[in-house]
């Protein structure tokens, strides 16, 4: 073989060896990256998770006694966080209090609670309390009086889902209601989730939080306000005269209007349905409220 060909062969072999070595090093680097610890990435994400921007404007309360008293106070509580190491009996106690207050319960890692609260002394429980100020039932009636309008009030008898409550408040505002009444216990309060779901309507429409929905209905009736409740066995909404002083009661997602509240109401209304016998036997409570409130607005506008 001529000397010049021998030199070319050596160069080609050398290039191949370099290419193979480079490829092997790249594969090893990629493999190490795939199996490398992810602690740095997790550490970068945790502060963002701990900030929880959806609770912006809410007050963080932590510790066993402070959270228990908050849940018993009747103030709006959005979410209760319980440590995943909390004993079952203790967790059941706070879960029951949260359900009564209309709050959502979430289990969280102890480290997440530490980052959220900024301290180790959270005792395994934290909650976000709403800073919304509630009105009184009398204030809602005074608003109607000042406007020279017949009162139009919406009552929530145990609506638990904050997204549903927010949607109802939004419809109530747009349909001309003077305010909404919600219970202190057994239903969702006005939290950041409700504010977001209502598209800000919860900050504009006066909201009264009362100890007893039944007692509020009695007081409305004393003011000559005709109180309807929504229920499946009611008279078709279109067949009712919805003008004049009026109040509409919407029940909870699961059981609807409670028997006592239903008994106190002057009338029961329902929405027509086309797909009967399909197993889907009712409208979502916020959807039903939107339809009914719109019909009330239409009839009141025709006076």
Describe the structure.
With 303 residues, the chain is α/β, with parallel strands linked by helices. About 7% of the residues have low confidence. The chain is built from 11 helices and 10 strands. The strands form 2 sheets. A 6-stranded parallel sheet has the order 7-6-5-9-8-10, sandwiched between helices. The protein has a 4-stranded mixed sheet with strand order 1-4-2-3. β6, α8 and β7 form a beta-alpha-beta unit.
Quick overview of this protein structure:
The protein has helices at 3-34, 39-51, 64-73, 88-101, 110-117, 137-147, 162-174, 192-197, 213-222, 259-264, 285-301; strands at residues 59-62, 77-83, 104-108, 125-129, 152-157, 179-183, 207-210, 226-236, 246-251, 267-270. By secondary structure, the protein is an alpha/beta fold. The N and C termini lie far apart (111 Å).
Describe the secondary-structure layout.
Blueprint lengths: L2 H32 L4 H13 L7 E4 L1 H10 L3 E7 L4 H14 L2 E5 L1 H8 L7 E5 L7 H11 L4 E6 L4 H13 L4 E5 L8 H6 L9 E4 L2 H10 L3 E11 L9 E6 L7 H6 L2 E4 L14 H17 L2
Parallel strand pairs: 2-3, 5-6, 5-9, 6-7, 8-9, 8-10
Antiparallel strand pairs: 1-4, 2-4
Helix pairs in contact: 2-5, 7-11
């Amino acid at each position: 073989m001529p000397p010049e060909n021998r030199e070319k062969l050596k160069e080609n072999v050398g290039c191949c060896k370099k290419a193979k070595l480079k490829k092997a090093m790249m594969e090893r680097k990629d493999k190490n990256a795939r199996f490398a610890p992810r602690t740095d990435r997790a550490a970068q994400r945790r502060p963002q998770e701990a900030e929880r921007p959806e609770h912006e404007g809410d007050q963080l309360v932590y510790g066993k006694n402070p959270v228990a008293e908050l849940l018993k106070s009747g103030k709006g509580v959005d979410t209760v966080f319980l440590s995943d190491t909390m004993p079952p009996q203790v967790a059941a106690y706070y879960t029951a209090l949260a359900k009564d207050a209309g709050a959502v319960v979430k289990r969280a890692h102890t480290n997440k609670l530490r980052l959220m609260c900024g301290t180790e002394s959270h005792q395994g429980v934290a909650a976000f309390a709403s800073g919304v100020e509630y009105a009184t039932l009398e204030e809602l009636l005074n608003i109607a009086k000042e406007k020279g309008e017949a009162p139009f009030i919406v009552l929530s008898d145990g609506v638990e889902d904050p997204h549903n409550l927010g949607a109802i408040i939004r419809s109530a505002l747009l349909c001309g209601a003077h305010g909404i009444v919600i219970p202190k216990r057994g239903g969702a309060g006005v939290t950041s989730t409700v504010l977001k779901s209502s598209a800000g309507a919860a900050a504009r429409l006066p909201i009264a939080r009362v100890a007893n929905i039944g007692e509020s209905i009695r007081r409305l009736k004393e003011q000559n306000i005709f109180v309807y409740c929504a229920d499946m066995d009611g008279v078709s909404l279109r067949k009712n005269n919805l003008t004049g002083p009026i109040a509409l009661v919407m029940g909870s997602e699961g059981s609807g209007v409670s028997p006592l509240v239903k008994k106190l109401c002057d009338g029961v209304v329902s929405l027509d349905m086309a797909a009967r016998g399909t197993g889907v036997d009712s409208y979502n409570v916020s959807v039903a409220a939107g339809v009914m409130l719109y019909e009330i607005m239409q009839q009141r506008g025709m006076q």
